Hints:
Low-confidence stretches: none
Mean pLDDT: 82
Number of strands: 5
Strand order of the largest sheet: 1-2-3-4-5
Helix content: over 70%
Number of helices: 12
Structural class: alpha/beta
Radius of gyration: 28 Å
Shape: elongated
Distance between the termini: 56 Å
Largest sheet: 5 strands, mixed
Amino acid sequence: MKFVARVNPRDADIVVLLEGGLEHAAPGALGQLVDMVPGPDGRTVIIDLEGVARLGALGVAMLTTLVGGLQDAGHEVRLRVKSDVHKRVIRAFGRDVPQPELPGPEAHILIERLGERTIQMHDAIVRFVLLTQATLASAITQPFRLRHRRSGLTQRSVVAMGVGATPLVALIAFLIGFILALQSGDLLKTYGQTILIADLVGLAVTKEIAPLLTAILVAGRSGSSLTAEIGTMKVSEEVDALTVMGVDPIDYLVAPRLRALLLVLPMLTIVADVVAVAGGITVGWMVYDIQPEAYIEQTTLAVELGDVLGGLLKACCFSIVIVTVAAYQGFATAGGATGVGKHTTRSVVQAIIWIIIVDGIFTALLTALP
Length: 370
């Protein structure tokens, strides 16, 4: 991991921001860094290790050299460390460096942090939008490029994302239909309208529950897998190797998955619709003595084609959300195995959040339509 250092002189103190791996610092880099710090003028030099992802014994040795050089130049030096792991490593190996301190409560530090986070958020949004644009463009144009169709990758992704997820989706959908029918049956039985169980289950499943639940399951299953795969390739520099060989990582790793999921997720949604209705039929027949023929007829009367198509349209949009979020977190992975686990968790959480946001937007739009 590349070592980067920045000197940020402020009114109250001088902050030295370290990023990357200290053990990768070039020979003589620490001496040049000491020379970059303004001469002693009463201000304290604070070495900030927030950007250092990993700190080992060699890194602490380099840090000790830096602190010693600054102290020899006449500076008072303090460490600013947030990571508990870094603190333990420094206490274990850094006997000649000051004890780590947390950032002070000064107002200008809080404002600076807020500005840094705002810039980081802006950069993240820009990178995500560019990634989404490149992924959609590649997925659309791939079938028309004879040498770069990636049909084999797409077919394998269809099998992995679709066939592998079908039993899980079917089981959960059946239980959801079963539970919905049981929960609504007692209330409708009070009014002698148990046949309306078919209306409630059919509309709730096709319009909302089936696409949403299927997307969440696929995000946890296939989205996390894609993030872990890309993240592992990123930390092992295989993504850089693809670029060196002239292979676009988005075209090779992301676009085939998007094409596959755009096909798979609507099909899984249809499976969830049918199986959830079957769960409702089971309850209606076994508990409320509704004949399956009557239940199916009532479902076809209540559920219109537009309700099913609206759910499938949601599924297509959820596919884009799942793949782009997973790919973004995968390409942003750093810090070895720990980073892969962290970004995989972020991928699942953020994908579910955005799925629910997109679902809310679509539900509002479809409800507003005449």
